[in-house]
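Format notes (please read before filing issues)

Several people have asked whether sequences and structure tokens are stored in separate files. They are not. Every record keeps both together, in the order shown below: the sequence lines, then the token lines. Line labels are part of the format and must not be stripped during preprocessing.
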Amino acid sequence: MSRQELLEYLLKEIEKCGFKIVDVGLFPVPAAVNVDNKIMIFNSNEAYPFEVAHELIHILNKDNHRGDYFDATNPQEVRANREAVLLLWEIFEANGGSYEYFNVFVNTTDAPFELAESIVKNEYIEMHEAITEIFEDEIKVSINKQEMHDYIVDYISYFDVIESVNIYQFLDRYHLSHNFYNMAEIEFQQLLGNT
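Then the structure lines:
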């Protein structure tokens, strides 16, 4: 999505909120909204997607006491900056973007680099860690199942005839935790045909 397409999309989202949008070429700031009067004034020569997304966040949060433009000490401004980056990142990812193309994201949205990097990096790392944790658990389980299968095949190869199996003795012989009892029992049943 190009910068212009992104701007048009964000402006349409603002219109959907019932706001009138007025383009003022000599407006001293890129964009500003008055939530009470449902009006947005922006300078199409100066406004970039980040500034418009920032104002959209103010609209969505019904912020009407914001103080100075981009006041870093005002909680509403801080939240609008953060949520604007996240909104733009969500749109970027939905259009095929990824963390590997972070510079493209910044160039397209004109989001402040350090701010965007810290927010996106934290979100990306948290998501990556959560996904890794989920897959690590699945990998451990599948490795343990395969190892269990191999241990049981090795164990039963020592017997000519098997009438019964003491699973605790099997686990002890292979130095496996007794927590694997159910897994071993199921694997024995599958291999020996006992159900």
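For reference, the curators noted about this record: The two ends are 57 Å apart (CA to CA). The CA atoms of residues 4 and 20 lie 19 Å apart.
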